[in-house]
Amino acid sequence: MLRVSSIIAVGLAVSAIACASNPPQTEVTSSDFDLNPLYGEWRGDYSSAETGRSGTIAFTLRAGESSASGNVVMIPRPDSLLTPAERELMRSVLRMKFLRKEGGNLSGTLDPYQDPDCVCTVITTFLGTFRDARTIEGTFSTVPSQPGGKVTGGKWKVTRVKRL
C-alpha cells in the first residue's frame, strides 16, 4: 500500500511540474480565416500617460495553430515611492486571454488582474491595426470592476521579430 501511495505522489508531482512548464494558450480567431499575417514571434511595448505605467508585450503564433502564447509585463510607475529593487519585485506578468483578427485589425483582452492603483480587479481590452507586414499599433482601455472607478488607457506597438 505504501508503494502505491508513493507512486501516486510521484505521478502527481510530475504532472504538476509538466503543467507549470506549459503556459496556458491564448485563443486566436479570424473573421476572414487568414491568420497568416499573425504567424511569428512578436515583441513590443505599451505605455499609459494616465497611469505612468509601461511594459513589454510578447506573443507567438505558429502556422497551423489556432492558439498563441503571449504575455504582457506590467512595470510600476517610476515616480512611485518604491525603490528600483522593489519596483522590479512588483512587476506583473499578465496573460493575453483572447486575440481576434478582422481584416487589417486586431482586438483582444488580457486575463483580469489586480490593478495597483484602484486595488481592484480590472479588465483590459486592446485594439490595433497592421501598419505594415511587420508592425501592429493600437490603443488599450482598462476598466475597473468597482463602480465609479476611473477607466484608463494608453498606446501599444509590436513588431514581428521572427516569421514562423
Count of helical stretches: 2
The major beta sheet can be summarized as:
10 strands, mixed
Low-confidence runs (pLDDT<50, min 5 residues)?
1-23
The succession of helices and strands, N to C, reads: HEEEEHEEEEEE
Structural class: alpha+beta
Rg (CA only): 19 Å
Principal-axes shape call: globular
Cα-to-Cα separation, first versus last residue: 50 Å
Share in helix: 10-25%
Counting DSSP E segments of at least 2 residues, the number of strands comes to: 10
Portion in beta strands? over 45%
* Rounded average pLDDT: 76
Give the helix/strand layout.
Blueprint: H1 2-21, E1 26-30, E2 40-47, E3 54-61, E4 67-75, H2 84-89, E5 92-102, E6 105-110, E7 113-115, E8 120-132, E9 135-144, E10 152-162
Parallel strand pairs: 1-5
Antiparallel strand pairs: 1-4, 2-3, 2-10, 3-4, 4-5, 5-6, 6-8, 7-8, 8-9, 9-10
Describe what this molecule looks like in 3D:
Strand 5 and strand 6 form a beta hairpin. 16% of the residues lie in helices and 51% in strands. It is an alpha+beta fold and 164 residues long.
